[in-house]
Amino acid sequence: MRGYLGTLLIGAAVMLSGCGERQAATDGAAAKPDAAGVKRAEAFLAPYRAKPVFTPLGEAFDARACAAGKSMVSIPNNSANPFLKGIIERMTVAGGGLGLKVREWQNQGQPNDWAQGVDYAVRTKADIVDLISGIDPKSIEPQIQRAKAAGVKVMTSHFYDPSQAQNPNLSSSLTVGFGTAGRILADWATVRTAGAAHILVIQSDEVPPTGPMIDGLRQELAANCPACRIVQQINVGFANWPTKIQPSVQTALLAHPDINVIIPIYDSMSQFVIPAVNAAGRKEQVRIGTFNGTPFVLDGIARGDVDMDIGESIDWIAYATIDGHLRDLCGLKSPAALNVPFYMIDKTNVADAGSPASYDKGYGDAYVAGFRKLWKLD
Question: What is the pLDDT of residues 173-190, one digit of tens each?
């Protein structure tokens, strides 16, 4: 009966539309754990276990004068994504304190939704359109070009990796080290399994920075963990996360009992991975490591459902996004990156984030005073 059920589940996963799977079962199959590689991985992770430090993004400027009477429409890749909603909520507060009105364009993760959001910004004479984390500008180029012609600056935030060239129709971009995040995840898996990680990766290839992140993961595993292998990669478009991730993960765990690490590369995926692990009865054998620092995922660490999250303070991201976009709007040089530090959060430090976890706890508060000084508010 169990074999029959396994056959059914495997067949069902192959039939899932919008979900691609790649096998990599031979990677590192004959290698033995490398103690020196584990030590290299530990050394690479050490800076990301330290409390984040604020670094100024440029020269101080009168942000309140720049923002007065201005408005921004922020368009997330999907309004169901709690990480992005949290950033926008905090941008509303940070921007509002300067006189910048921030509005979210609610959408269901489809290019037509994003296009309508840009058109709305043009109709309402917004000053900035913020394409936040996941919207490929190529998918809505005609609307971006119309916005540009109307004097609306279209920018991206938390989207490109520094290795990627921005779309030429954009005014500026605030990049994030997705490749570095991939390296951290690889080295965490290496250390956590003493150099013997058998990994299931959940990804969304339609999001351009997924590529650099997976490249960083693979390159770091190759450098430090010859016995580690990516057993399977499952590609799910973000509009399909709620329906495709859980059954695909359950199927993978049944088909590959050697899996001991799951990496959902964006942590909002975890809400569908955790039930799959529990349903498969593998909670004690499988470690989940991920990236972003969304509060509900940090609560999952406190409960023991998630092992590690590469945290980025959502409040800090909001401040940095407002800072970068205002600099561009007012003719100043915009930073090339968000410059929000990565911070590894696990059971040793998750209590600092609060219970329940908060957007702005656990990372220290030096960035608040830092931005107030940069904005000439103090």
Answer: 999 999 999 999 999 999
3-state helix, strand, coil in the chain (%, to 5): 45, 15, 40
* pLDDT tens by residue, 316-354: 999 999 999 999 999 999 999 999 999 999 999 999 999
**Distance (Å, rounded) from C-alpha 34 to C-alpha 196?**
9
State pTM to two decimals: 0.90
Residue showing tokens 């005073």: 369
DSSP string, 209-240: THHHHHHHHHHHHHHH-TT-EEEEEEEE-GGG
Q: How much is the pLDDT for 195? A: 98
End-to-end alpha-carbon separation of the chain, Å?
70
| Displacement of CA 221 from its chain's centroid (Å) | 20
Per the CB < 8 A criterion, the answer to whether 264 and 189 are in contact is no
How many domains is the chain partitioned into structurally?
A: 2
Asked, for residue 106, whether it belongs to a domain, the answer is yes
Beta bridge partners of 229: 198
3-state secondary structure at position 375: coil
Same domain, 335 and 280: no
Which tens digits make up the pLDDT trace of 127-144? 999 999 988 999 999 999
d(C-alpha 159, C-alpha 363), whole Å: 22
Instruction: Report the pLDDT value the prediction gives residue 32, as an integer from 0 to 100.
Output: 86
**Tokens representing 77?**
């890749």
User: Which letter does DSSP use for residue 372 in this model?
Assistant: H
∠ CA 299-301-304 to the nearest 5 degrees?
115
CA distance 318 to 86: 9
Range of the domain at 23: 10-50+178-311
